[in-house]
Each structure stands twice: as structure tokens, then as C-alpha cells.
Amino acid sequence: xxxxxxxxxxxxxxxxxxxxxxxxxxxxxxxxxxxxxxxxxxxxxxxxxxxxxxxxxxxxxxxxxxxxxxxxxxxxxxxxxxxxxxxxxxxxxxxxxxxxxxxxxxxxxxxxxxxxxxxxxxxxxxxxxxxxxxxxxxxxxxxxxxxxxxxxxxxxxxxxxxxxxxxxxxxxxx
Length: 174
What we know:
The chain is mostly helical. It has 2 domains: 1-47, Orthogonal Bundle (Arc Repressor Mutant, subunit A); 59-171. The chain is 75% helix and 0% strand. The chain is built from 9 helices and no strands. The protein has helices at residues 4-22, 29-36, 40-46, 50-71, 77-90, 92-100, 110-126, 132-151, 157-171. Helix 1 (4-22) crosses helix 2 (29-36), helix 1 crosses helix 4 and helix 4 runs parallel beside helix 7. The longest helix has 22 residues, at 50-71.
């Protein structure tokens, strides 16, 4: 018999896959339980609602972003961009899910949090008071890398990362 944590992880994996394919609102708990071959009550044992399930899928992205902007020190912009891309690449399915259905941003109050993470990351890249033009360049750099993780999510990392980081560094004038 599967351990509860195994079942929970399987539920999250299948839900993430369905959410990416067809959106959060278009995915029912019945579809998830059917694909897993479990009953809906078994699914409810692990997650009290679809919202609870969505939050559990998004939470690792939130934790990694919080950790990234809280623990990194200002330094080499290329290294920061490289590490940032690695981090968002690990969560590209969640980013695809969010972009596919922007209402997902409401979970965990993500909209404002994402802007705050971007502001903190720009401070790491440029210091506390960049002029508006440099700030705009950094916004383009960060947003462009995120877009690449979403748009090219099915390509190999080795193909996407060098071009995305190079473009981001160029946007910063590095």
C-alpha cells in the first residue's frame, strides 16, 4: 500500500499536469481522482479542496523565490541571472500554469508577491537606487527570462538557459 506522502505527491503531480494542460478552472477533482484511479474521498483525505491542492503546488515556487531574494547578496550580475534562471526553470510548469490562467495569481496573493520579488531581485542586480532606464532594463531582463522558461518549457535546459541568460545580461548592458 502506498504511503500517504506518496499518494499526496502523486496527486500533486497529476493535478499539476492537468492544470498545465487545461487550466485550473477547467480541471475538476473528479478528473484528477479518475486519472489516479482513486476515489474523490481519497483525494479529499490529502487536500480539503481544489484551492488547497493548487496552493500546495504553488508553494514550492513561493518558498524558492522567497529564499532566493532573501539569501542572495549583491554580486556578479551574470551569476545572479544564471542562478535565477535555474530556479525558475525548476518551476516552469507552475509558471506555465499561472500564465495559462492568470486567476491563479490570486492563490497565496501571488500577484503582489511576484512584483516584490522582482523589485528585490533588481536591487540585488543594480543596487538600491538605479536610475529609471537601468531599472527598466532589469525589468526586461528578468521578465524575458521568465517568459523564456514558459515559452520554451519543453525544450532542453541546455538549449534555453544560455540564450536566455545572455539576452538578460545584454539587456542589463553586461
